[in-house]
Amino acid sequence: MRALRPESTAEQKSGPPPIWLMRQAGRYQKEYREIREKVSFLELCHRPELAAEVTVFAVRQLEVDAAIIFADILLILDELGLELRFEENHGPVFDKPVRSLADVDALPQVPMAERLAYVGKAIEIAVKELGSTPVIGFAGAPFTVASYAIEGGSSRNFTKTKRFMYEEPVAFEGLMTRLTDATIDYLKMQIACGASCVQLFDSWVGCLSPFDFDTFIAPHMKRLFASVAPLSPSIYFGTTTAGLLERMTATGPDIIGVDWRMDLDTAWSLIGHDRGIQGNLDPVVLLSDRATIKTHAARVLEQAGGRPRHIFNLGHGILPQTPVDNARYLVEIVRELGA
Ligand code: CP3
Fold it and tell me: How close is the Cα of 72 to the center of ligand 1, in Å?
């Protein structure tokens, strides 16, 4: 938790940075695939004992410094009635996308914390199992979640999302407000159940211009971080965010998560060293040999410069074809090089 605390300063002797890996519980693990042969992904999310089990297993297998609770950013949309399903080799699909003001107005008022209580239950079990290892809670950031709601699934260019944002600003604003309210409710519940910190996944926010971020996104993120700040530290993660880093920082998170498309030291200068940074190894590096992994991990560590508020992570989720041994080796080498 040291990396999360603002009082950490460059003068303190730091040692290796804390490390965890985005998507550390998942298909690259044989044990996860075995569970998935018996239950669907959504069932796994809905069963607290199983979700806690895969969460805890990843921590023990990789020997990382934090758990992230096993769940998904899209569960919230399922509870709003959009009817989430996962198609084989196709990813998430929503049969009832949001495409108009009428669709936004028709979204049901649901007690989100109550509906997603099963995630809280999984956090409680994982916290109990893990003792002093922190459990990170998470949610999708409203824009990234809205993009799935509007597109009806994954997207490459976010054309429907952006057209909706430009042509129906009142409806888009309404959707963002609803998602922000629901997300605040959901995160507060996760923190109450024992999450030590929360990460907001704004995976696709980098598709927006700085002007669009300021106009359509920033006010909601400010409200979100202001609501969470008294309760927990927060991490704001996005990809291809080089043009947005100062703006993301200004919305109020404690830590910014960055991908590999930018040098960590350059990113940290833009964010400001009074904030923490998380990242930023390219997940593809973990498909390589040990010498390559070591070289690239060393470069990330060098760019972090031994400052205490760096959390080592990948720049995006671990890939399904990653050998488990390579992920374990990364953790080992980061501890060795960072010592
Ligand atoms: O270990 C962890 O990191 C915690 C679990 C976690 C999952 N999804 C499990 C999952 C987290 C933090 C997420 C976040 C998430 N979900 C994001 C943001 C992070 C990112 O990758 O950008 C997004 C965009 C989603 C939406 C989502 N969920 C998609 C697009 C897909 C299908 C694509 C894919 O990778 O298969 C999922 C499914 C999903 N979420 C899986 C897992 C382990 C794979 C499901 C399976 O077992 O088949």
Answer: 6
